[in-house]
Amino acid sequence: MKKWKRLLIVGAVVLGCAGCGEQKQAETGAVDIKPVDVVQTETGTDEAGLETAPTESDTEEKNDNFEALEEQASDGETAAFAEQVQAAVAAKDMEALAGLSAFPLAVNGEVVESEEAFMALGADTIFTDERCAVIAAVDISALEETMAGVVMGDATPNIIFKSVDGELKITGIN
Question: DSSP of 45-104, one letter per residue?
Answer without folding.
Answer: E-TTS-EEPPPHHHHHHHHHHHHHHHHHHHTTHHHHHHHHHHHHHHHT-HHHHHHTEEEE
